[in-house]
């Protein structure tokens, strides 16, 4: 697929925009991920938050590269001590704690969702693309819980994957509809139509 066709296919494509505009959107989605962490329902060992919804939207709106960069910026800010993780927690140790597997998968999940969403333009394909991103997050999180904390795969799968299924299906539906509805109306960041 040529780059011209890709540009037309990706609503809100910022890959061909100025570096400053790209950095602003990357930073904006990193901040939005931090805000999503503040919408928290406490649960052990991993709380319910809105972060994964923002990760999926970052990939869809920014594309695989910039979506992943937004999440790397988010993780870097937290590792450097900014209070961006769930519960306002800062620090590198949070990345190796029970939620570390989920957090470390955010860049890959944004890249997967961002890549797949460009292949077709339908609500179902958007949802399927974002579901693939969720699988990346929850597979990584579950394996991390199993390897470092729970040591029983069935228990890790139940506590790290199944428990989130209802909550993340709601977020998946919301993220898919938000992206699809905006994508129908706009073809570029800032609402500049093709």
Question: How are the SSEs placed, and which strands pair?
Answer:
Blueprint: H1 3-9, H2 19-38, H3 51-79, H4 93-96, H5 100-104, H6 106-116, H7 123-150, H8 153-160, H9 165-185
Helix pairs in contact: 2-3, 3-6, 3-7, 3-9, 6-7, 7-8, 7-9
Quick synopsis:
With 194 residues, the chain is mainly alpha-helical. The chain has helices spanning 3-9, 19-38, 51-79, 93-96, 100-104, 106-116, 123-150, 153-160, 165-185.
Description:
This protein is mainly alpha-helical. The protein has a single domain (3-191), classed as Arp2/3 complex 21 kDa subunit ARPC3, CATH 1.10.1760. Helix content is 69%, strand content 0%. The chain has nine helices and no strands. The longest helix is centred in the middle third of the chain and has 29 residues, at 51-79. The relative contact order is 0.15. Mean pLDDT is 81; it is low at 1-11 and 188-194.
Q: Could you list the spans in which at least 5 consecutive residues all have pLDDT below 50?
A: 1-11, 188-194
Note the gap between the termini.
Answer: 18 Å
β-sheet strand percentage: under 5%
Q: Provide the residue-averaged pLDDT.
A: 81
Output the structural class.
mainly alpha
Task: Please indicate the count of domains.
Answer: 1
Q: Which overall shape is indicated by the principal axes computed on the Cα atoms?
A: globular
The fold-level CATH name is: Arp2/3 complex 21 kDa subunit ARPC3
SSE string, helices as H and strands as E: HHHHHHHHH
How would a textbook summarize the main sheet? none
Q: Which percent bin holds the helix content?
A: 55-70%
Radius of gyration, taken over Cα atoms and rounded to an integer in Å = 16 Å
CATH class: Mainly Alpha
Number of helices: 9
CATH architecture: Orthogonal Bundle
List how many beta strands DSSP finds. Answer: 0
